[in-house]
Amino acid sequence: MKDEKTKTHVIESDDFLEKLKLTKTGVPCLVLIEGSPLGKKFPLVPPKVRFGRGSRSDLSIDDKSVSGEHAEVIVKGQEVQIVDLKSTNGTYVNDQKISEPMVLKEGDTVRIGTTIFKYLAAGNIESVYHERMRDFATIDSLTQVFNKKYVLEFLKSEYQRCTNQKLPISIVMIDVDHFKKLNDTYGHLAGDYVLKKSCALLKDQVLRSHDVFGRYGGEEFLLVLPEAPLQRACEIAERLRATIAEYAFEYDQKKLSVTISLGVSEADSTIQTPEGFIKKADQALYKAKNAGRNQVCVI
Prior knowledge:
The protein folds into two domains: about 130 residues, Tumour Suppressor Smad4, CATH 2.60.200; about 160 residues, 2-Layer Sandwich (Alpha-Beta Plaits), CATH 3.30.70.270. Helices cover about 35% and strands about 30% of the residues. It is built from seven helices and 19 strands. Strand 6 and strand 7 form a beta hairpin. The two termini are about 40 Å apart.
């Protein structure tokens, strides 16, 4: 199995995500068993799903051994076929290179570059199991956003991809203001409520389904925005801030004053590693807190 640092990352295009919204449940899927995000289930949306390294693909794989337009899966009723699109390194089903369209069967493995998927037919109970196991491994149980391990893994992968392709990438560090005081005054259950409600508000009202937002630790959160320049990241950060500031938090019939501080950073030539990227955003966050909180700052 690959080292965490070298795992390829599979990214859904905006068009593909829009198709998913219109798709009924119970469609066949490919589960990622080698690559990142490990264990994720990718529904095979009719009539076809295209794989490749370019932005025109439905599922983009950040791997130099993958062609720009590598393969596609064609869904015809109950039959699902995979077709190689004359890729440089080929498409493999059960470790056999395919030269013509092949009908996928339950449990088949599909290898594209160094990324491996497992095919599960529509309604397969194992599909539900994979999704549940992935949630256990990647989701923070309290807030229901991604956990620190997952969001850092995603950041490392996307930082490398965007840097290599000379694309912008920004991150936002978020901290709930005066959280210790809130806990001390109203109790830890009130604190838990604030964290859960804040995350739900941000996911429902601001963030898109494919934005990667995770709990970094305690009351601190990290938002990764691939291909977003600094100005766009600041606009999103301000919407996050305003959403929390304008909501009337209430717990146990007590009104709670809740605000967040945010630090924004875009990758540039002064940043050499994902760790340095986070450090810069953290410095911007502390600047926001020292300036009076409930604001967005950039360094």
